[in-house]
Each structure stands twice: as structure tokens, then as C-alpha cells.
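User: I need a structural model of Catalase from [Ruminococcus] torques for a docking pre-check later this week. Nothing fancy, just the predicted C-alpha cells so I can convert them on my end. Input:
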Amino acid sequence: MKAFAHFCTITKHKKLVLKECFRVGLYKQGLLHDMSKYSWTEFRVGCRYYQGTRSPNNAEREEKGYSSAWLHHKGRNKHHYEYWIDYSLEGPNLLAGMKMPVRYVVEMFLDRIAASKVYLGDAYTSDAPLAYYENGRADELMHKDTRELLEKLLHMLAEEGEETTYRYIRREVLKR
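Assistant: Understood. Predicted C-alpha cells for Catalase:
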């Protein structure tokens, strides 16, 4: 039963991201978003740790001290800023966030909206993705320009709603 519920959850999330990507013109990214979640490496973890109210990766992380599914996922999906962490040229052995291409920052933004909608259901509000982001720990590892754009979009969504934010993404962000 958990396997079916997990499948439904990730498929619902994927459909939402697809819809949102299509709204801003990111057709290929919408179609290919999170395909690795259906791989055995990620899917079996999702089935085992499925709860329905949060990512199964967090439950695996709590039990093992790391999430094998997340390590697999972030290494294959360019819309996660963790994909873009590399050694910096500005010092010995320092990890740093590299600047993400704008289209992946937009997909990351849309991914956060979809995840919030899936896990919050009817309790979702347009400020939920911003609240989730502010509870995270991306400050030191996300590239400054990437962080600025993501935060701008999250604040715009919270203050002005989807239509205004998506129009801005189509007309300004993706046209650069």
C-alpha cells in the first residue's frame, strides 16, 4: 500500500511541476522533471519511508544519518542547487555553489510550489513556498545570484500571487 501511495504522491508532484513549467514555457523541463524518482534507487526508499506528509528522504536521513535517495536525486536533477556545488577556485578545498542557469532556478522555484501544494493540500497559500525556503539551510552553499533570483520569485509569489509572478518569469526572467 505504501508503494502505491508513494507512486501517487510523486506522480501528483510531477504533474504539478509539468503544469507549472508549461505555464512559463519550460516544456522539456516539465516533461523530464524528477524522472529519477521512478528509478529503483529512489523509489524503493520512498516506499519504505513513505508517510504522506513530508519527504521520505527526511525519514531515511533520520534513521541512517543520510539519505541515499537524496544523494542519488540531487546528482541527477539540475533544478536542485546542490547539483551545482563544486570546488571553488577562490581557495583550497572550499566547496561553493556555482551559478545556476536561469531556467533551472525557475524550475527549482516551481518545484517548491508543487511540493508545498502536494504536502499542504488545501492548507496551501502562496506564501508557503517562501516559509519552507526560510526554514531551510541554503545560505552558504547557494550561489549569490541564484539565491537572489529564487528569493525574489518566492517573495513575489507571496506578495503578488502566481499570475503576476509567472508573467514576470515569462516576460523578464526567461527572456534574458
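Before docking, keep this in mind: Residues 2-173 form one domain.
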